[in-house]
UniProtKB/TrEMBL annotation:
InterPro entries: Ig-like_dom (IPR007110), Ig-like_dom_sf (IPR036179), Ig-like_fold (IPR013783), Ig_sub (IPR003599), Ig_V-set (IPR013106), T-cell_Activation_Regulation (IPR051713)
Alphabetical list of SUPFAM superfamilies matching this protein: Immunoglobulin (SSF48726)
GO biological processes: cell surface receptor signaling pathway; cellular response to lipopolysaccharide; immune response; negative regulation of T cell proliferation; positive regulation of T cell proliferation; T cell costimulation
Residues annotated as signal peptide: 1-19
Source organism of this protein record: Triplophysa rosa (Cave loach)
GO annotation, cellular component aspect: external side of plasma membrane
Gene3D superfamilies reported for this sequence: Immunoglobulins
This protein's UniProt keywords: Cell membrane, Disulfide bond, Glycoprotein, Immunoglobulin domain, Membrane, Receptor, Signal, Transmembrane, Transmembrane helix
Subcellular location: Cell membrane
Residue ranges constituting the Ig-like domain according to the UniProt record: 28-106
UniProt protein name: CD276 antigen-like
Bilayer topology annotation: Single-pass type I membrane protein
Pfam annotation, one family: V-set
Length: 142
């Protein structure tokens, strides 16, 4: 009896999927935060994107043509909803965009965490090279 209950509990917990991936982007460039769910499209009524597990930055319903969030900075791929792609794109990254974004698909109980790492490309002049162009250097912001 106890073994049966444990197997059932394990199966229920497996149904709640949680993944974490990292995406690296550069200041000023766009970045795509991936989220896909293809198991049962009938269970997708709403997709929410949260920043640092608190603030909702983008939210939409696959059946609704509009999102109710900041379309100046974020966009989704509406023509790919039927194939299960609920990714979003941040149009122009800034340093403060770094952190963990969470894609939540309800009522399917699907959760995906995406860690966004921001790098800045700056040009530094080599003091020993007079008259030469500065060379690019990548800086990591953690």
């Amino acid at each position: 009896m106890i073994v049966g209950c444990l197997i059932y509990l394990f199966a229920v917990l497996l149904n709640k999927v949680s993944l974490e991936v990292s995406v690296t982007g550069y200041v000023g460039d766009p970045a795509v935060l991936p989220c896909s769910y293809t198991e049962d499209k009938n269970k997708v009524q709403e997709v929410s994107w949260k920043y640092d597990h608190k603030k909702i930055v983008y939210e939409f319903s696959p059946e609704s043509p509009q999102s109710n969030m900041d379309s100046e900075r974020f966009e989704s791929f509406r023509d790919e909803y039927d194939s299960g792609n609920y990714s979003i794109k941040i149009k122009k990254l800034v340093i403060t965009d770094k952190g963990v974004y969470t894609c939540i698909i309800t009522p399917a109980d699907y959760v995906a965490n995406i860690k966004l790492i921001i790098k800045e490309q700056t040009k530094i002049q080599d003091p020993s090279s007079k008259g030469h162009y500065p060379f690019p250097m990548l800086l990591d912001w953690l």
